[in-house]
Amino acid sequence: MPNDELMPIGAFARRSGLTSSALRFYADSGLLPPAEVDPVTGYRYYSADQVARATALRRLRELAMPLAAVEAVLGAGADEASRLLDEHVAEVVGNAAAVRRKAEVIKAAFRDAPGLPLAVLKGPVLADAVEQVLTAAAHEPGVPALTGLRIEADHEAVTLTATDRYRLSTRTLVPIEPPSRPWAGTVHGDELRSAVAASRRSPLVRLEAFPDGIWFRVAGHEDRHCRLLPEEYPDHRLLLASLGEVTTRLTVAKDPLLRALEELPGERVGLHVAAHGVSVMAAADEEHAGLTLPGTVVGPELRIVFELTTLYPAVSTAIGPDLLIDLRGHDRPVAIRSADRGDLTTLAMPVEPGRSA
């Protein structure tokens, strides 16, 4: 290759974003040998064709990927490279979580005051409740409190609540051992999902509260810690208290309603609750009757419209084969709960036809 098509190491460093010392290291390791080395001066020269490999190498090393893994990724096809990257990310995330847990153990050892014994709950019940309620949590970076799960404990129950402003889920659990005093806090949602995974196969889980988080203590498993979110949680109790009287109540089988929602075209769904059940239709095509499901209706007929992404998870996470749906008007939140178990309630906010939520 003619020398005028080659770049000295300094110019190539600027093009690739790697330092000259890093380029020498990668050349000696065999990951990125120069295109040519002057036999007299020892100067190293690189070609423009090597910029892409050098840039990929730099980016992989920025992910703290070991050299052997970097070499494997650079030599693999697109699908295999993606798989190797996913494996590396999973390992990094797992290591970070392990470091965080160990740090929490060390921090706990520094505390003089013991934690508050919050409650003893059945492990599988707690795991199910967390999964059900957290489906209503938000993922908007501007409202960090809504990414978490609100836990409120008193001598009668432990209440779990999550909301994304268009949907609110709440479930009450009866503790085997209640707290010595009331407690409330908003727990980091992602850490909570991870923490309760070990609870599913454990008969009992002990929750212990500290100023910075909650410990999940499960016999035979490593204790897990979940941070508390410092941001103020919305006053969801005020919302629940201001719902108003139920005007129409519908009892309908859960599975047929889910299937109707799954098969419905469009992003919005219209419900027409009438004398003997509910008609499910695309909100943009209300002239057609849609699919009519039998049910028991008490109260006047009502037409109401939802975003599918709001209504579907509210229905799918409900407990039991039959749903009890309380309606208060076309512009008021709808409560969805089990027809025979009311400890999980989800509120779904309707939208006005033709307008965004």
Describe this protein with a few key phrases.
357 residues, DNA Polymerase III, Chain A, domain 2, twelve-stranded antiparallel sheet, 10 helices
Description:
- The protein is of the alpha+beta class and 357 residues long.
- It folds into 3 domains: 3-75, Multidrug-efflux Transporter Regulator, Chain: A, Domain 2 (Orthogonal Bundle); 114-237, Roll (DNA Polymerase III, Chain A, domain 2); 243-348, DNA Polymerase III, Chain A, domain 2, CATH 3.10.150.
- It is built from 10 helices and 19 strands.
- The chain has helices at residues 9-16, 20-29, 51-62, 67-74, 78-110, 123-134, 189-197, 236-241, 254-263, 308-316, and strands at 6-8, 36-37, 44-47, 116-122, 149-153, 158-163, 167-173, 183-187, 204-210, 213-217, 224-227, 248-253, 268-274, 277-282, 291-298, 302-307, 322-327, 334-338, 344-348.
- It has a 12-stranded antiparallel β-sheet with strand order 8-5-6-7-19-18-17-12-15-14-13-16.
- A hairpin with a 6-residue loop joins strand 17 and strand 18.
- Helix 4 (67-74) packs antiparallel against helix 5 (78-110), helix 6 (123-134) runs antiparallel to helix 7 (189-197) and helix 9 (254-263) runs antiparallel to helix 10.
- It is extended, with a radius of gyration of 28 Å.
- The model has no long low-confidence stretch (mean pLDDT 88).
